[in-house]
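Shipment paperwork, digital attachment
Item: protein structure file
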Amino acid sequence: MGSGELTASMSKVHRWIASKIEGPVRAVFLDTPAGFELNADDISRKAVEYVSRYVGVPCPIASFKSAAKATEWETKNALRKLGHANYIFAGPGSPTYAVRHWRNTPVFDLVTRRLSEGAHLVLASAAAIAVGRYCLPVYEIYKVGEDPHWVDGLDILSPYGLELVIVTHWNNTEGGAHDTRHCFMGESRFRMLEALLPASAVVLGVDEYTACVLDLASRECRVTAAGRVTVRRNGEESVFPSGSSFSLDLLRSRAAAGEEGPKPELGFDLRERATVPAGELLLRQLEKAEREWASGAASLADLVSDLYELARAVDGAIEAGVEEDLVSRGRASLGRLLMSGSGQISPSSADLVGGIAPFVELLIDVRSRLRAANEWALADELRGRLAALGITLDDGSAGTTWKSSNSQ
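Attachment content:
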């Protein structure tokens, strides 16, 4: 999962995965990735309550916060719970912390064995990054300022012929005008990181509020929830929208497969992205989004995907100094598409908060961009349309939060 592992909007993914388990679902939450956090126990309790509420089964905590500090009793207790579990859940925290405290421990050795025995691993955010062949040191680069580099990951999928680099938060936009895609790295810095990878490695990018289910038995990957999954290798990428599936073989490098094999059908080539002028790219995204939405065939998930791409193109145009008329057209189109898309949301829907949480967050993000560009009338209209749907925005010093009158 790219993010949102404890949000109502991702509950359908959890239930779908649990439905694939034959017999009783025996869930457990492994707390290691956030073991250094002062609120680690609060995160664990939230996960336990979440699984109980949305999956409908108990979820004990397999507590292993620190390999160095775990007592013999804590380790044995974690092993006992993991040994019986067929739904092993881990998520938020630090990828490199998870690697350090899982590597060469009986706890993670057991997790690896349970996977080979058919248990389902539900790994999100930091935990997902940690289990790849190479692990992205997110905090060290983004927060501390270290040079771009990789550390050896836990490489849990190499027995299945996969040399994966898993990158969550692939489409992150928290930076606003500052590019924080690709797990806060940004496109330019991530290209530097890709250049450090061996040719045999394959990058699996998972959007926020999105899951990529790797079914090792059927050799199929399925994309579900709000966003998309991106497969990148050697400067090329393939993009798969929610609801689509692709062969697990696509994630195997040609070196790992032992043959060149046919090239996969590619999405937007990175080399083309680098050479297309920002203004032309913005025009392409404008025309694509408006054309698809005008046809009336676009789903809510399609709309969110188009809006993310359009917002990125607007940002790129601003950075490149594209003429203001075109940038203003892009902003106006964002606003129109957002407001027309709000008609798909039923204010009386019982699962409003969970079902459209990513959409509302995107509305808030674009509204912030409009306000920063002094597009006050359009920003106020967005706020008014949300209010009519029962969604109240609160602009505070820490940013904009929201609540729904339909929430329980």
